[in-house]
Amino acid sequence: MSLEFLITTLIVVLLPGTGVIYTLAAGLTQGARASMLAAFGCTLGIVPHVAASVAGLAAVLHASAIAFQTLKYLGVLYLFYMAWQMWRDSGALSIDASGTDELKQHKPMRIIGAGILINLLNPKLTLFFLAFMPQFVDVSAANATVDMFGLAAVFMAITFIVFVLYGLLAAQARDHVISRPKVMRLVKRSFASAFGLMGLRLALAER
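Given the sequence above, the corresponding structure tokens read:
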């Protein structure tokens, strides 16, 4: 594993995407524990894309317009659904103005599941790993598959750590958000708009 791989991975993970937005929203609306669950779910959502890349399924996805478009629009619909829920202040990321622990009302698996789906239904992730991983692995080597899974594990570990840090920072501001109705409403609508824009960007994405 090279220093170049670590630096590139850190840059990629730090860039705001749907996973980062979801983790920030969880931290601001429900607190530190929820943000960690969201980060865990988003990290788990990477696993199928890594497996598809290693198994060569990413090449099939790249070659098949129907497969790519199907997965893409499922992802678009889910992001729009998240935006709609956030705008209505319902679902796994609803804001509790009283400051009570939302995890008592929303099962942790619901938060994790939403994080998984956000990344799972993004076909660009599979193609990203198809293009990204081979740059740091000798694909002709006998242990190339093992090496790719090793790099993927490091990528996922960095993703989880960075997302947790994002979420914890957001959680620190939670008290200031829920104690100010106007700020809370602005935050809720900002995240709803962010999910909607992410969905629109994915809808316009090409292979």
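Residues 98-103 have pLDDT under 50 and may be disordered. Try to locate this feature in the token string yourself.
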